[in-house]
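Question: Send over one sample?
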Amino acid sequence: MASAPGATSYCDLGGAELSPEAASIVIFGATGDLARRKIVPALYNLRLSGLLPEGTRIVGFARREQGEGEFRASLREACERYSHTRPVDDDAWDWLERRITYLRGDLDDGAAYERLASLLSAPLMPDNALFYLAVAPDQFEVVARNLGAAGLGGAMKGGGVRPSPPGFRRLVVEKPFGRDRSSARALNRALQERFDERDIFRIDHYLGKETVQNLLYFRFANSIFEPLWNSSHVQSIEIDVLETGGIGARGGYYDKAGAARDMLQNHLVQLLCLTAMEPPASLDAESVRDEKVKVLRSIRDYPREELLGRSRRGQYAAGVLADGSPCAAYRDEPKVAPGSSTETYVSLRLEVDDWRFAGVPFTLRTGKALDRQSSEIRVRFRRPPATLFSDYCGDALSPNALAIRIQPDEGMALRFNAKVPGAARLGSSELRFAYREANDAYFPEAYERLLADALSGDSTLFIRADEAEESWRIIDALEAAWEGGPPPEPYAAGSSGPAGDGPEAWGL
């Protein structure tokens, strides 16, 4: 439906509205950091915005000994501290608090899942259930197996004797989804034994960011860009997710993962897919995800020496962070192994060998303890033909460039050439768009959107099994190429990364 005359122009996408269903939302690891910082504040904000249905119930499942009153109070404190809408609205919180239950249990204790099954079947509990695995990755299969044994999984495969439960049974799984392609495939099989693939929601919170979702809208709803979005007009594309902070207290996890597994395999590969994909047949989940998988399959397997030439890896040394605070060397961080060769910075140049982008380099770059906090996609267009202005200006004629900013300062900037007033001279100018300046836009947190989607059964912004495995294929090859090679290059904390490999200054 279009807007009324005189109003800001917009078009509602019919059938694309969020329609969450009432469900029992069971949070495994409910006393942990993820639940407190992201999941519960997101549920509170969904209620505040009117998107959490009346019949919703929330069950916290964790091993910590505490009473229900203590648990509820801790979640109120978490909302006061981490919600982006503060102060906490008493009416919205009271509504949520009355629907919160705490169940103490160990993740590997089958009896605890039987108690959970009994609780979920009690009067006034909704038929639907959404299980959120906010637990360590090595516990994903344990939880799924016990849910299945307690009769809380989805329909059994192959004509099993257990009847299908009433309502839906959906499973939300956090990253990292496996450590490599082999473990991801094994985990997929284990989850699919207890839940239908359509009910498994592999979450990457980057896909819940408004400006990431906008990539599809921006590309395919604007005829001034879509005809140029190919190798005939695009010279190169850079995708950066850069962080100013070090690893903090995550040394135990990070030293086993590194930047490639922690960020490249999920966040940056997802941005690559959305940037390079063909227009889907429709906006339904499978059509969108089909096109993303095609992008990954279009990235060929590079020989080891070529892959080494296409990549850089680094590790931060002691220095001063962007905020002026001192930063210890990575190897001196808590829980990091002495002499660790884990990378905290990685860049990788790939090519999508399909009809649209063959020959266009995509550079993916991410790192910790850098001089800027930035997530953006930069598209550099080819210069005009070597006639007229190019004959005079040569390399001084700036190529057109587009920057799509995901954070901070969400928006876009387009660089173009224009005449300098009062002189026969060309200069570079910019058009800028900032969401917050344009319409004081409300940006829901990524977890709000993704939780609402999971309750609605919309998997568009979640990762499909084959997509997870294909992304690991790329990272596995990179890790294998690094094996036995030179150690990561040191770079000072607070710098732009290894020498000569920082983001090019495009002036956007």
